[in-house]
Design brief:
Blueprint (H helix, E strand, L loop, with lengths): L7 E10 L2 E11 L4 E5 L6 H8 L7 E6 L2 E2 L5 H4 L2 E4 L10 H11 L6 H11 L4 H4 L9 H13 L5 E5 L7 H18 L2 E5 L3 H7 L2 E6 L2 E3 L5 E4 L3 E2 L4 E5 L5 E5 L7 E4 L5 E3 L9 E13 L6 E7 L2 E7 L1 H7 L6 E7 L4 E2 L1
Parallel strand pairs: 3-8, 3-9, 6-7, 7-8
Antiparallel strand pairs: 1-2, 1-4, 4-5, 9-10, 11-15, 12-13, 13-14, 15-21, 16-20, 17-18, 17-20, 18-19
Helix pairs in contact: 3-4, 3-6, 4-6, 6-7
Bound molecules: adenosine-5'-diphosphate (ADP).
Length: 342
């Protein structure tokens, strides 16, 4: 039996801006028709990776195989199959109709143009009659993003790369953009790679989650990443102060590191603090959301602790025993040594 060829295979990628290395990926595969969630703080290299995957930028070093073939940036054959939607969409200074029809016109696919544009607009919740003749500058931010999405999906892309697609749009547009991306995968088998700060969304839809930090990729799944600044408390420990005065204590890393992973499995939840040692972090917060996981029958809960959000898995037994629901005040516990530094 031959193994299905991945959509992407990246080998020994390094990318520099000037002398600064911003991305280093030894080996990464993205499967056809899968959804990959990219998670990481600002400046970690998500947009750079997406530009490389779009073949819109050449990596300083390394190779990118697309469906088993080594491809070079800007190759027209491939760029028509792969499309990138950024946070601030670029629209042509023309009407909505012309923006959406543009790609098909370039491909000389003029048959049923109006019907196709009508359908593409409907797919992102925009009515043809009201929107087709509007100009690019007569749209709200959310509508412009939906038009940009429609202009991409009308081309039936093999890969849709989304760079913070819903970060600056209204709730209704965000919902429609989310739905349109999932429809593309369902109806066209489109491979999706999505960078978003909406961790709940990414977690609920993606098949794999990649955490990027300082240009390094960790296939950790969805885990808690705590970034600095940290302060030294003694020889063995660092602390992070939260905005409300609570303190997280973490074992000192062996080498220079800037972020800590606290795995979901190492965090427990309770309703009250226990008398314990100062090596045990006990943080008060509240449940901000609870989401049924796609594969297992567990619940992914997000706990807000002032300016920090931590996620953990909850089993039905625990939920009913502690009577947990969104909004409830809780205590999260994890040991200061249960930390991995990256
Ligand atoms: P993210 O999308 O995670 O916010 P980026 O890929 O945009 O991260 O940026 C990664 C790093 O590269 C950042 O330090 C950013 O300042 C830098 N960077 C991004 N684009 C350029 C550029 N065109 N020239 C120089 N530095 C850049």
């Amino acid at each position: 039996m031959t193994k299905e060829i991945s959509a992407y295979h990246l080998k020994n990628i390094q990318h520099y801006y000037g002398n600064t290395k911003v991305l280093g990926i030894d080996d990464l595969k993205i499967e056809k028709g899968s959804i990959t969630g990219l998670i990481g703080p600002n400046g970690s290299g998500k947009s750079t990776l997406l530009k490389l995957l779009a073949f819109a930028q050449k990596p300083s070093m390394g190779q990118i195989f697309y469906k088993g073939r080594l491809e070079l940036p800007f190759s027209p054959s491939i760029r028509s199959k792969i499309t990138l939607l950024t946070q601030k969409p670029y629209l042509l200074k023309r009407t909505v109709f012309e923006n959406i029809a543009f790609g098909l016109r370039i491909r000389k696919e003029k048959k049923d143009l109006e019907k196709k544009v009508r359908k593409a607009l409907l797919n992102v919740g925009l009515d043809y009659q009201h929107f087709a003749t509007r100009f690019w500058n007569e749209l709200s931010g959310g509508e412009a993003q939906r038009v940009a999405m429609a202009a991409r999906l009308i081309l039936k892309p093999e890969v849709l790369l989304l760079d913070e697609p819903i970060a600056s749009v209204d709730i209704e547009s965000a919902g429609l953009i989310r739905q349109a991306s999932l429809n593309a995968r369902k109806n066209l088998g489109t491979t999706l790679v999505i960078a978003s700060h909406d961790l709940q969304w990414l977690y609920s839809i993606s098949d794999q989650q990649l955490s990027i930090f300082k240009g390094n990729i960790f296939s950790t799944g969805m885990e808690n990443i705590i970034t600095g600044p940290f302060e030294k408390s003694d020889k063995k420990n660092l602390i992070k102060k939260l905005g409300d005065g609570q303190i997280i204590q973490l074992n000192m890393p062996a080498q220079t590191s800037c972020a800590a992973i606290i795995r979901k499995k190492n965090i427990s939840i309770d309703l009250e603090k226990k008398p314990g040692s100062d090596k045990l972090n006990q943080l008060s917060g509240h449940i901000s959301s609870m989401l049924l996981e796609k594969k297992n029958k567990t619940i992914m809960a997000t706990i807000s602790i002032h300016d920090l959000s931590l996620i953990l898995k909850l089993y039905p037994e625990k939920i009913s025993r502690l009577d947990l629901y969104p909004g409830k005040k809780v205590i999260l516990r994890f040991a200061s040594h249960d930390v991995e530094w990256i």
